[in-house]
Amino acid sequence: MNASTPGPAGAARARPRPENRPPSGGWRIVAAKELADHLGSIRFVVLFVVLGLAGASAVYSVSQQITSVAAGVSTGQSLFPLLFTLSASDIAAATQQTANTPLPSFVTLISLLAPLLGIAFGFDAVNRERADRTLPRLLAQPIYRDDVINGKFAAGLAAIGIALGAVLVVIAAWGVIQLGVVPTAEDVARLVVWYVVAIVYIGFWLALATLCSVVMRRAASSALVAISAWLVFSLFGSLLISTVVGLLAPLSASPTNSEVIANGHLQDALTRISPDGIFQIATQAILDPHVTAGILTIDQRVAVVQQGAPGSILSLDQSLLVVGPQVLAIVALTVVCFALAYIAFMRQEVRA
Amino acid sequence: MVLQPSPRVEGGRDVAIEPVIEARNLTKRYGARVAVDDLSFEVRPGEVFGLLGPNGAGKTTTVLMLLGLTEPTSGEARVVGVDPMRDPLEVKRHVGYMPDTVGFYDGLSARENLAYTARLNRVPRSIATARITDLLTQVGLVDVAEQKVDTFSRGMRQRLGVADALLKDPSVLILDEPTASLDPEGVVDLLALIERIAQERRIAVLLSSHLLDQVQAICHRVGIFYKGRLIAEGSVRDLATEASRTEDVVEVGAQAHDGRPAGVEVITATLRGAPGVASVAPDPDAPDRVLVTGAPGIAGELSSALAAAGLRPIHLRTREERLDAIYARLVHAAAEAPVRPPRPKRSTTRSGPGARGTTPGRPGPRRARPGRAGRPRPDNHDDDPGDTAAGEPG
Ligand SMILES: Nc1ncnc2c1ncn2[C@@H]1O[C@H](COP(=O)(O)OP(=O)(O)OP(=O)(O)O)[C@@H](O)[C@H]1O
Ligand SMILES: [Mg+2]
Predict the structure, then answer these.
(1) What is the pLDDT of residue A74?
(2) B59 CA distance to ligand 1 centroid (A)?
(3) Would you place residue A142 in the very low, low, confident or very high pLDDT band (cuts 50, 70, 90)?
(4) In this model, does residue A49 exceed pLDDT 70?
(5) Domain limit, last residue, from B205, B222, B241
(6) Which of B182, B212, B241 marks a domain boundary?
(7) Are residues B152 and B300 in the same domain?
(8) B255 and B211 together in one domain
(9) Same domain, B130 and B265
């Protein structure tokens, strides 16, 4: 059409230049800007303070009487993970004292806080651009719409990851220096795996909050919906699950094997829908790897019983085997949130 | 930035150049409501096209469809030769866009906001810094470049929006109500800037507005938009002649034979009785002149009437009709018309290019007055509650 006329600058520049497509990776530009925003924000300071308090409480619990606890710990288990999993009540139990402070362990605190952290960094991701009226301008730049969501997600996750990583390192360093608890390579590996799983878990909540921020025009309603989801999962989740399981696969007074297995299958399936349950199982399997009923699926339990090894400790690769499906389940839930967020975002009008 | 001088094609009416914006039968429905109805127009490089219309006419919707930010229900658009629905990124690389309610990241400075846009457009950092300074200078914000945007007034944000739209060195500039909250000086500056950029860089400019006298000042062509339909299109001058004017206003100044200016009273007395003259009044803008209102084409009559009285006309100029009057008349007619308003003007402007519109219609005396004079009858905005409601921050 316009190939022959060596037109003036405007027309020449107007021609599409397929060889000069915008490079992919618009999300990285968005993420860099968002991360810079996060790192300078009050939100990030609060995040650090909260994680720091969790870390401090863990350190406090552990420093109380780790030696007496250590005496009660089964041989073959490393002390290092206790830095993160010991709670004040564990200590009290081990030392036959009453705990003067009901402090939960670090990982319990994190599993409690993780949803809130994710929500805090995602609930206003897209609707703030709307409220600030920057969305039309942003989307008029040569990036894809999903770049916006992806970039914001990556930045939020990076911010949380930085803070959580820093706190973990500080606790570990304190354990090494003050208590002389030297981690083995496997301990370090377990901690890293747990960190990754925690980030994946927080990522789910971040994705859910981002979805809310796309669907809800107001940041306040978005936060409310996300927090409600968290309450449903964490407070009523297990209750709901046991109710549903009791209804659909009830156990009689003297349950038969098939009843137990059917019940177990349903329980497993439902637990794997609840990200909260998934994370707890994964945490336990990684950092507190006693073979207990809680962390194994019914099929794995049957296998363990058949091999006659209940109560033993999972090796790292066994832990990974247990954790793998859990992590996949969280990732799948995250992907679902993302897909919904993309679809909603693509269908939305750009203007407010 | 491409600043090389290029052969000026007046009014962008050189047909040899491909249009960079083409809308063909664009239609957008929101449910049962038709926001844009079968819209077709084109804009060529170097041309400034004004999209005029009352609130809710569909201007913003049109702009969003051109950018690929809203999908047309039917019809298609071509911007820089690309379908914005097919390849939105290619369009967005070449189109500088300023939305009607432009927002910035309040926590960042003006410069940082622009730097982000530059990064999103993959402008190399070395070029970006100089370009940002240059643009901030052009829009008069260089002194507050390092200030956070939350300290900016609305007008300052709007200026920043223009700089933002120009940052990618666009070949098409789309400005949705660029002058909405600027002070009079800012309006003049901004319009001059747009006009200069359109000429120097030969970019096509599409701007929407209801501030008609401003649009009149810089637009080579305008499209008048009413309830989603283009009811007229062409240069302001075309529209003035086509839209059946009922009277002319002529400025008249004259000399007596001895070369001294004839007094206003003398001229008035001479012209009052001339055929076709409706009224004669002193020109408030010039002491020695009068304003004569009369039948269209009356200037000739006046000249002979003066000569007959022994006066020499030294100033005889038919005032160009103001766009707001044309607009009011057209929109009024469209509102009166039965279900489907006629669409008369498009064919005429398509047929003889070059014949008209050689100069953007600069009106003569422009009094400073609010640009909403041309607002059509009030019932027009009964049907756009959504837009006005959405305009306020929730
Ligand atoms: N998301 C939407 N859903 C339904 N109707 C819409 C939507 N967006 C716009 N409209 C309608 O489309 C019509 C055109 O709106 P548009 O914003 O394009 O008008 P405009 O010419 O830009 O008006 P203004 O001068 O007020 O900016 C209006 O009647 C409006 O109510
Ligand atoms: Mg608008």
Answers:
(1) 53
(2) 8
(3) very high
(4) yes
(5) B241
(6) B241
(7) no
(8) no
(9) no
Domain membership flag for residue A10:
no
CATH of the domain at B59: 3.40.50.300
Interchain contact, A15 vs B201, CB within 8 Å: no
Closest C-alpha among B32, B106, B56, B38 to residue B346? B38
What is the 3-state secondary structure of chain A?
CCCCCCCCHHHHHHCCCHHHCCCCCHHHHHHHHHHHHHHCCHHHHHHHHHHHHHHHHHHHHHHHHHHHHHHHCCCCCCCCCHHHHCCHHHHHHHHCCCCCCCCCCHHHHHHHHHHHHHHHHHCCCCHHHHHCCCHHHHHCCCCCHHHHHHHHHHHHHHHHHHHHHHHHHHHHHHHHHHHCCCCCHHHHHHHHHHHHHHHHHHHHHHHHHHHHHHHCCCHHHHHHHHHHHHHHHHCCHHHHHHHHHHHHCCCCCCCCHHHHHHHHHHHHHHHCCCHHHHHHHHHHHHHCCECCHHHCCHHHHHHHHHHCCCCCECCHHHHHHHHHHHHHHHHHHHHHHHHHHHHHHHHCCCCC
Among all bound ligands, the one having the nearest atom to the CA of B56 is 1
Residue of B154, B150, B111, B106 whose CA lies nearest to B130: B111
Given the CA of residue A349, which atom of ligand 1 is nearest to it?
Answer: 1
> CA nearest B165 in A: which residue?
A137
Task: Using an 8 Å CB-CB cutoff, list chain B residues near A131.
Answer: 393-394
Among A37, A40, A218, select the one facing B394 at the smallest CB separation: A218
pLDDT of residue B387: 39
**Do B258 and B120 sit in the same domain of this protein?**
no
Specify the pLDDT at position A95.
Answer: 52
- Tell me which range, A149-158, A187-196, B319-328, is most confidently predicted by mean pLDDT: A149-158
Both B305 and B212 in a single domain? no
pLDDT given at position B378: 36
Task: Note the pLDDT of residue B379.
Answer: 37
Please state the domain count of chain A: 1
CA–CA separation, A95 and B178 (whole Å): 74
Q: Does the residue B253 lie in any domain?
A: yes
CATH number (domain holding residue B301): 3.30.70
Mean pLDDT (chain A, rounded): 77
**In angstroms, how far apart are the furthest CA atoms of chain A?**
92
Partners of A151 on chain B (C-beta within 8 Å) are none
The stretch A302-312 carries a mean pLDDT of 58
Residue A15: pLDDT over 50: no
Distance B389 CA to ligand 1 centre (A): 11
- Indicate whether this complex's ipTM tops 0.85: no
pLDDT computed for residue B355 by the predictor: 34
What letter would DSSP give residue B181?
T
Q: What residue numbers bound the domain in which A139 lies?
A: 24-347
Residue range of the domain that includes B286: 246-318
Neighboring chain B residues of A13 at a CB cutoff of 8 Å: 2, 94, 171
In angstroms, the CA A80 to CA A187 distance is 7
Domain membership of residue A19 (yes or no) is no
Q: Are residues B192 and B305 in the same domain?
A: no
Picking from A73-87, A92-106, A130-144, which range would have the lowest pLDDT averaged per residue?
A92-106
Which of B29, B387, B392 has most ligand 1 atoms within 8 Å of CB, for mutation? Answer: B387
Answer yes or no: is B179 within a domain. yes
Alpha-carbon distance of A1 to A114, in angstroms, equals: 57
Compare A65 and A317 and report the one with higher pLDDT. A317
In a domain, A255, yes or no: yes
Residue A43 CA to ligand 2 center (angstroms) comes to: 35
Residue of higher predicted confidence among B256 and A201: A201
Instruction: Report the share of chain A in percent with pLDDT over 90.
Output: 30
Indicate if B269 and B134 belong to the same structural domain: no
Please identify every stretch of chain B with a pLDDT value under 70, giving residue numbers as ranges: 1-16, 240-246, 320-324, 337-394
Say if residue B171 is in the same domain as residue B108.
yes
Q: Which atom of ligand 1 is nearest to the CA of B61?
A: 18
